[in-house]
């Protein structure tokens, strides 16, 4: 059972049947913000040149933006997704996605995402528009524990 909202979001993620989810983890959540990592490999994620297939970055961006929307207590579905590839990425790279909600309306939301490689270099930029399916209140849990909140967590 989750003791923080970060754990809650990862427990929900574990229920997702989409195959690459097993290689990803939500690493930070705050209202309107989410961060996620994805461990790629050189077989399932790559094209014939050994570069990550284009769907990997846009899929990660879509997922982390949807999670950022969910941090505001809204269940969403993607209605528009746009991405720009900035740099090629080889298989085996750990990607880090960072997303922010830019607009939180009653029926639609807009979010942006940046995907970085292990060196912290920007490899992909994305923007998505999401349809709000329903209000989904979050459990009453702290977002995360910080050391001063719980000195036993070191």
Beta-strand percent range: 35-45%
How do the strands of the widest beta sheet line up side by side? 1-2-4-5-6-3
Mean pLDDT: 91
For the sheet with most strands, the description reads: 6 strands, antiparallel
Q: List the secondary-structure elements in sequence, H or E.
A: HEEHEEEE
**Which descriptor suits the 3D outline?**
globular
Assembly level: single chain
The percent range for helix content is 10-25%
Number of helices in the DSSP assignment:
2
Domain Thioesterase: 50-122
Keywords: Hydrolase
Pfam family, one: 4HBT
Protein name: PaaI family thioesterase
Task: Describe what this molecule looks like in 3D.
This is PaaI family thioesterase. Keywords: Hydrolase. Pfam families: 4HBT (PF03061). InterPro entries: HotDog_dom_sf, PAAI_dom, Thioestr_dom. This protein is α+β, with helices and mostly antiparallel strands. 18% of the residues lie in helices and 39% in strands. The protein has two helices and six strands; from the N terminus they run αββαββββ. The chain has a six-stranded antiparallel β-sheet.
